[in-house]
Amino acid sequence: QVQLVESGGGxxxxxxxxxxxxxxxxxxxxxxxxxWFRQAPGKEREFVGTIMWSGGRxxxxxxxxxxxxxxxxxxxxxxYLLMNSLKPEDTGVYYCAARQYGGGYNHWGxxxxxxxxx
Length: 118
Known about the structure:
This protein is mainly beta and 118 residues long. The chain contains no helices and eleven strands.
């Protein structure tokens, strides 16, 4: 059973930084891609970025490119989302998700709240 547990959310001023963590357990993730998504109040959940567990290739939504960085620590089975230059529009619940290569995201964490004040 795959389990994903996010942590690291909080309140930060605009221009500040936060690092979110996603601790993954339940299987070997070498054939998985890990994604970060977010959902702002009243809006649809949106893609933030993803990392291939094997090889570490990343891709990002245009809205966060150059400000957010995804990385993983295979020894700790943990994926990170480093968020710099935060803006109020980055506010939302951030979710970690996992999918096998070629499949859809079918494992989700419970989410962690990020609030950016202006």
